[in-house]
């Protein structure tokens, strides 16, 4: 399949989130609700307005990746004294709607509360979509580290399902036009930036992507660097991106960490090495014996150890290139 087009025009403007149908959650804001003693710039009281049928959790929460396992919400160095249970109390989430009408995009927003570091992360899912539990759980862990994480619905309610026959995959993928997907990503980027700005937080954004989302991450950063305005993204982390055009590395300005396993046919190590050569500040982190999806869908004790190492590598990369920059 030919590489996805990356020249989709940015929307000239991104409409504010509309009042959604009753089964949806209003696009919540990161803006701080004033409260005596509240630390400026931090959201201590989110203004969520979910309906009775809303699927999102309305209170701080965090979930473990596997049932029965204690959540692992590792903190940044400066808040290392906060234990995992307390850390998991520092995140609240809600479903949001960005845009209007046929151009609207659903997304899930995870907001760091007490330990909010003021920055945003756009997380691009794999083919199983933004509601997939593995993607949501990984996003929770990122938010536990102080980030405001937005996970958009890249497939407009039609993600790939494991029950579908693989011989229909290309037909399914063709339903999601690259121009439409890139437009949705750009709209969500602008929305997140607007929310951070309105809240008086940092304008720094990072982007993380898995598999399909990793491929779109590369295209997004290539578009971002060519923007007539200042680039939005300061750092990226790509987990085993699929169908990536390595030539785009020449157009990527933001520092990117590429994570993959040497046994992954969907993300060849050769592609990672070429991107490492082409991109400006770039590192390829290759795990021996690992296949596709190990970082957010570990299937064994060994994979789980490497998944934890990869998460820590991502955290350090964002710390160095997003927070400290």
From TrEMBL:
List locations, semicolon-separated. Answer: Cytoplasm, Cytosol
In what residue span(s) does the Dienelactone hydrolase domain sit? 114-321
Superkingdom of source: Eukaryota
Per UniProt, the ranges with Low complexity bias are 1-16
Tell me the GO molecular function terms: hydrolase activity
InterPro entries registered for this protein in UniProt: AB_hydrolase_fold, CMBL, Dienelactn_hydro
How is this protein annotated for GO cellular component? chloroplast; cytosol
Quick one: where's region Disordered? 1-22
Q: Which UniProt keywords apply?
A: Cytoplasm, Hydrolase
The entry's family comment says: Belongs to the dienelactone hydrolase family.
What is the protein name given in its UniProt record?
Carboxymethylenebutenolidase homolog
């Amino acid at each position: 399949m030919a590489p996805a087009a990356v020249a989709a025009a940015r929307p000239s403007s991104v409409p504010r989130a509309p009042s959604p149908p009753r089964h949806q959650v209003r696009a919540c804001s990161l803006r701080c609700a004033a409260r005596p003693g509240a630390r400026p710039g931090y959201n201590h009281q989110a203004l969520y307005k979910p309906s009775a049928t809303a699927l999102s959790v309305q209170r701080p929460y965090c979930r473990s990746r596997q049932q029965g396992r204690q959540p692992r919400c590792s903190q940044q160095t400066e808040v290392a004294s906060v234990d995992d249970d307390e850390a998991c109390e520092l995140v609240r989430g809600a479903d949001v709607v960005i845009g209007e009408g046929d151009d609207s995009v659903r997304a899930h927003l995870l907001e760091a509360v007490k330990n909010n570091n003021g920055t945003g992360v756009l997380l691009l899912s794999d083919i199983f979509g933004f509601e997939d539990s593995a993607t949501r759980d990984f996003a929770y862990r990122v938010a536990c580290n102080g980030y405001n994480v937005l996970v958009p619905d890249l497939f407009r309610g039609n993600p790939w399902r494991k029950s579908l026959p693989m011989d229909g995959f290309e037909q399914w993928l063709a339903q999601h036009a690259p121009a439409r997907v890139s437009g949705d990503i750009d709209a969500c980027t602008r929305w997140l930036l607007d929310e951070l700005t309105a809240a008086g937080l940092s304008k720094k954004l990072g982007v993380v992507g898995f598999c399909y989302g990793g491929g779109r991450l590369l295209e997004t950063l290539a578009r971002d660097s060519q923007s007539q305005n200042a680039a939005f993204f300061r750092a990226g982390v790509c987990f085993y991106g699929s169908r990536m055009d390595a030539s785009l590395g020449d157009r990527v300005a933001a520092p990117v960490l590429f994570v993959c396993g040497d046994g992954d046919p969907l993300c060849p190590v050769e592609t990672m090495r070429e991107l490492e050569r082409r991109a400006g500040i770039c590192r390829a982190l290759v795990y021996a014996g690992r296949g596709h999806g190990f970082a957010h869908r570990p299937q064994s004790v060994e994979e789980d150890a490497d998944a934890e190492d990869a998460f820590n590598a991502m955290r350090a990369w964002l710390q160095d290139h997003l927070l400290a920059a």
